[in-house]
Amino acid sequence: MIMHPDTLRGLVAQYETLRHYAGDGDEQRRRDLADVTYTLCVSTGTRDVNDALAAARAHIRAHRAPA
Questions:
Q1: Is residue 33 part of a domain?
Q2: Residue 12 lies in a domain
Q3: Is the CB of residue 12 less than 8 Å from the CB of residue 58?
Q4: How far apart are the C-alpha atoms of 4 and 17, rounded to whole Å?
Q5: pLDDT by residue (tens digit) across 4-35?
Q6: How far apart are CA 6 and CA 64, in angstroms?
Q7: Mean model confidence pLDDT for the chain
Q8: Is the pLDDT assigned to residue 65 strictly greater than 80?
Q9: Domain range for residue 51?
Q10: What is the C-alpha separation between 54 and 60, in angstroms, rounded?
Q11: Residues 12, 53: contact at Cβ < 8 Å?
């Protein structure tokens, strides 16, 4: 199940932000990262976050509004 491009864009942004801070020892941030990782995988029909990110980015690119 692929979500709306804007939703995927938000999930990718959340993932990138949380991943940046993942090593700071904050337990809530670690849980949030796990949640957004899971959501990205489910949303893109993948099992690996790298595959999920690639699929999400491809879907976002494919649905950009023409300039």
A1: yes
A2: yes
A3: no
A4: 20
A5: 999 999 999 999 999 988 778 889 999 999 99
A6: 10
A7: 91
A8: no
A9: 5-62
A10: 10
A11: yes
d(CA 46, CA 22): 22
Mean pLDDT of all residues in 30-53: 96
Spell 26-56 as b/e; 16+ CB within 10 A means b. Answer: eeebeebbeebbebbbebbebeebeebbebb
Asked if the structure places residue 47 within a domain, the reply is yes
Which residues are CB-neighbours of 23 under 8 A, at least 6 positions away?
Answer: none
Is residue 29 situated within a structural domain? yes
Q: What tokens does 33 get?
A: 């990262």
Three-state secondary-structure class, residue 1: coil
Structure tokens at 29: 């941030």
Total structural domains within the chain: 1
